[in-house]
Specification:
The protein is an alpha/beta fold and 317 residues long. The strands form four sheets. A three-stranded parallel sheet has the order 1-2-3. The chain is elongated and about 65 Å long. The longest helix is centred in the last third of the chain and has 18 residues, at 299-316. It has helices at 28-43, 64-74, 90-102, 113-122, 183-186, 201-211, 224-237, 272-285, 299-316; strands at residues 15-18, 47-52, 84-85, 106-109, 158-161, 168-173, 177-182, 191-193, 216-220, 243-247. Bound molecules: glutamic acid and zinc ion (ZN). Residues 19-21, 53, 205, 219, 223 line the site of glutamic acid.
Length: 317
């Protein structure tokens, strides 16, 4: 899908971001997302923000945020504006939940994983492993009455977003073209606040992309399946929808996506040469060719060439 915007025109307020979860250092896959989003922002003369997505505190590793920032800077991927940490913005997410509560689209759910699995089994629904469980609506009331006490909530209770019937979300991905998802069929009423009192990724990402006025989201294709529900939540909350550009995933030799779970190894950025090699691997993955090689080139020169190559790529591909 070509980018129809004239690439040489100055930004009309382009704001992109890189939003890593600090669950470990950057690996080859996350560097692709960092580089792709950085190049797209720079090529469009936009801002590139860094947001540390540390809402899922049990999965966060102390110090990983600092390590990620160190790796980014070693690769010359500098950000504009102060980075934000989601853990420091709990009141934003609370406010969004209060709003949804007023709109009568939130309900409390007391199901455990086991209750959901049994309810699905009773309906004859088998969820393949690795596939998301579609919530069967067990706790959904006939008529939603806002829960009392604003954001003061009971323990061990999750909050789910009630989806309207017939909710097919369509959007144009700048890399992958037209996308559509039937949210009731593929997702079901999804959780915005977990039983253990944590706000979910879906809620936090939507609130922060709006708070930070992000106009372009460039991220890995592993997140593509979250996009429709994020667009739905944006609409319910009255936020603008940014444009989306999902980048091809880096797979390991078994064809599995690289992640901390599959013990993807951290990229090396200790020396300038190592950082440049890591960048070159990421660029190759993004389909960028004819970039300066050899070890005489500086990272800054290389990034400039990559920004120009990116420009060519999305204009002519
Ligand atoms: N924090 C998410 C991750 O590291 C990315 C969120 C996003 O880019 O929307 O997988
Ligand atoms: Zn339930």
């Amino acid at each position: 899908m070509p980018n129809l915007k004239n690439p040489s025109s100055p930004s009309d307020g382009y704001r992109g971001r890189f939003a890593p979860s600090p669950t470990g250092p950057l690996h080859a896959g996350s560097l692709v997302a960092a580089l792709g989003s950085w190049l797209d922002a720079r090529q469009n003369h936009g801002q590139w923000l860094l947001r540390i997505e540390d809402v899922d505190t049990p999965r966060c590793i102390p110090g990983a945020d600092q390590e990620i920032m160190r790796q980014l800077l070693a690769c010359g991927l500098s950000w504009d504006e102060e980075p934000i940490w989601q853990s420091e913005h709990q009141e934003r997410y609370k406010r969004a939940l209060d709003r949804l509560n007023e709109l009568k689209v939130l309900y409390t759910c007391t199901c455990s994983r086991q209750t959901i699995a049994s309810a699905l089994e009773a309906q004859g629904v088998i969820t393949p492993r690795n596939q998301e469980i579609i919530y069967p609506g067990t706790c959904r009331p006939h008529e939603i009455i806002p829960y009392k006490g604003g954001s003061e909530l009971l323990d061990e209770v999750a909050l789910r977003l009630a989806l309207p019937p017939n909710l097919t979300i369509e959007f144009e991905d700048l890399a992958l073209g037209k996308q559509r998802q039937d949210l009731n069929r593929d997702v079901g009423d999804f959780v915005l606040r977990r039983r253990d009192d944590l706000f979910t990724y879906q809620l936090a990402v939507v609130v922060d992309d709006a708070e930070q006025k992000i106009t372009h989201i460039v991220r890995g294709e592993d997140l593509l399946s979250n996009t429709a529900r994020q667009i739905h939540l944006q609409r319910v909350l009255g936020y603008a929808t940014p444009s989306y550009f999902h980048l091809p995933l880096v797979l390991d030799e078994h064809g599995e996506k690289l992640s901390k779970q599959t013990l993807a190894t951290a990229i090396h950025t200790e020396t300038e040469q190592q950082a440049l090699n890591s960048l070159r691997n990421a660029a190759r993955h993004l389909g960028l060719s004819d970039l300066p090689d050899g070890n005489r080139v500086s990272i800054a020169e290389w990034l400039l060439a990559a920004t120009q190559a990116w420009n060519r790529r999305i204009t002519f591909s």
